[in-house]
Amino acid sequence: MFFGCLKSNIEKLFFKQPFISKKMKANFPIILIYLLFSQSCTFIRYINTHEIVPKSEVEIVNYLIKNKVSCYDYAFSLPVSKIDSFSKKNHALDLWKLNRDEEQSTIQIRIYDSLGLLINGYTQCYGNMVKLNIFSEKETKQFAWLPNNYSLRFENELQLLSICKDKQDEILLKSSQKKYTIVVFWNIWSNYFSRIMLTKLKQYILKYRMDDNLLIILINTDDISYFLNNSLRE
After folding, report:
1. With CB atoms 3.0 to 4.6 Å apart as the test, which of 69, 139, 182, 232 could cross-link to 64 if both were Cys?
2. Distances in whole angstroms, Cα of residue 184 to Cα of each of 1, 36, 107, 199, 232
């Protein structure tokens, strides 16, 4: 079903372009396969099954309830006002994109230790979460081949959120008391790409019984995704 919806969306996008020749249209199946295996994080803007629109707090909560996502301690939304900071050195996870001054993916996982140091991270741009599962083992370790920004500090994550100092202090204290703090940047529009991260996280918690060892923070990025998507069209 996912492939069928994906193929239909790509066909609509592909065939209505004025620069697409008859030869290119004839080779559409080959082009489709190439795009699917290219793992382009930009390309998923055009193959998602949901429209990119801002989401209210109620819509976000209802989505989490509907999809039985309950394994988290805090849930926030990333303010549009922080969109520039999200891709700066103190907050950017993907060094490859950072070094090229490109926007960061809005679909990410960041894992910190009790000292607030980054241990591992994942963005949708790295590839398929099923194959690149950073939750495959109980003890989190670095994947040396990933271009993660290991200078990231958990305390800087909180600067991206619209929360008061007391709430920041509360979260930092709880983080220091846990083995791992996991920050998940996700959105509704990306559908499968965010759901697979949340699913793998849930499986990790249940498999290794990590409930008491984790502080989990979900940060929704639908609003900044909408802003970025419209900026690209201008």
Report:
1. 69
2. 26, 24, 8, 12, 24
